[in-house]
Design brief:
By secondary structure, the chain is of the alpha+beta class. It is built from nine helices and 16 strands. The protein has two domains: 114 residues, 3-Layer(aba) Sandwich (Rossmann fold), CATH 3.40.50; 155 residues, Tumour Suppressor Smad4 (Sandwich), CATH 2.60.200. α2 packs parallel to α3 and α6 packs across α7.
Amino acid sequence: MDVLTLINDGAGSVAKTGDVKELVREGLRQRGLEADVRMVPGREIGKIAKSFVSDFPPRSALLVGVGDGTISAAASALAGTEKVLGVLPLGTLNHFAKDLGLPMELGAAMDVIAAGNATMIDVAEVNGRVFLNNSSIGVYSFFVAERTTEQRRSGASKLAAIGPALARTLKAASWQSVQIAAEGTREELRTPCVFVGNNFYDAADFGRRKSLSSGDLCVYLVRRQSWLGLMVLPLKIALGLIDTARDVELIQAKTLEIASRHRDVIVSLDGEAVEMKMPLRFRIRPAALRVLSPAKQDAHEIGHRAKASK
């Protein structure tokens, strides 16, 4: 298997891992994989991934040691091809790696990669941009933008920037009118946040995903509530105390369209804030991406293929 490994030189765990380039190269070599390992800026990984698709043989593997937002840039290039994506958990939060079932210890993650178990998972996209975890508009996307601004302003880490960003977000939070179209229905509502997940997020279970191959978008519309209710909502989500009947409305769909009176909107995509034109058109792309994962994921893949064949 031809292997190219890209490590974000600014990833959350890289500075704590010593000579991570040599550590990864030697670790893969000991597991029978000769890999070209490169340290690159995160902003270049999407471009390199596109070149990888055209320049490397089919079934080659692109390994990425990056955060969730940068993994999506690589996945965007690989989705719909025979190329395989492997993940080294070197980001700050590693949400995608955890939902995939990968161990967080680097050596154990390389064991999974060396085993070569490729599983088909879904990806989601909005206006042509791929995301692996979730996308949102409203208070959360504002928070992501503020967190990024705080990191650039003060040089703080992503975790250290959360407090100041959250304080500014709650101060500026507001409800907005949006039109939601999904599964043949359309409704207009006022909400502080619309959350769209790639597969089902269990809001009552700390926002975990049990499957990455169900073939559905998971849409949470935050219901109108008091300012106090809005302020404690992030804490309720973090503690798994969300009331799915009172706090949010859930929609599961293959496609979704969000429109509003605004021409442009800040959208969160896997923890990265980007500006997009309205309307926002979301869709799920079932079994679009091959990823290296623990063998226990095989059961999900088999179930998904059986469902699709009916």
